[in-house]
Amino acid sequence: MIKFARMGFVTVAILMLATWTAYAQNMPQMGFQQVALSQTMVRQFLSSYPQLQSLRKKYESQAPSSADGSGKSGNPAPSYATSAAARAEMQAMLSSSGFSDLSEWTKVATSLSLAYGFVKSGKNIEDLSTQTNRAIENIQKNPKMPDAQKQQVIAMMRQQMGRFSPLPGNVELVQSMIDEIKPVMESK
Q1: Which residues have CB under 8 Å from 173's CB, separation 6+?
Q2: Which pTM value belongs to this model?
Q3: Per residue of the chain (188 residues), what is the pLDDT tens digit?
Q4: What is the DSSP string of the chain?
């Protein structure tokens, strides 16, 4: 399977930002959802990401310290996610970048990150499918595994394959825009 660690710091930052913000707003976690990307969506993301990072840094520097001097506030969510001012500023910034809300931005970010990971790894969807099918064959041939367990594992693998496969057209779009995308996706 693709080594998702290769997708870079930005991918992790994107998913953490969305998760923490959803947590802080008592929203259900947005999950791992993808959209069919367009050039416009990609460019909106590329212009918004540095702004969002600046906003995150601004509010992290304003994080309250704990009373015990440990520097930890006791809240697992970062301050930019729990601050109403930060959320309002984030929403305004996302709106000015063409996104309706954080959920839409997160779907674009997830889709872009996943497609970029495929492009960067040199793999394609067929490679992932072939590897999954080989793993399924090995599971089916395993005499030590009960049939019910085999079926459960195989069903889970098929579900995950679909979840972590870029939507049709996203990899090709990312490949065509790689010179624009790479500087942002490789930034720290």
Answers
A1: 37, 38, 39, 42, 115
A2: 0.66
A3: 444 434 444 544 554 455 444 444 444 444 568 899 999 999 999 999 888 888 878 877 776 554 544 445 544 455 556 678 888 888 899 999 999 988 899 899 989 988 998 888 776 666 667 777 888 888 898 888 889 988 888 888 777 666 677 888 999 999 999 999 999 988 76
A4: ---GGGG-HHHHHHHHHHHHHHHHTTPPP--S------HHHHHHHHHHHHHHHHHHHHHHHTPPPPTTSSS--S-SS-HHHH-HHHHHHHHHHHHHTT-SSHHHHHHHHHHHHHHHHHHHHT--HHHHHHHHHHHHHHHHH-TTS-HHHHHHHHHHHHHHHHHTSPPTTHHHHHHHTHHHHHHHHT--
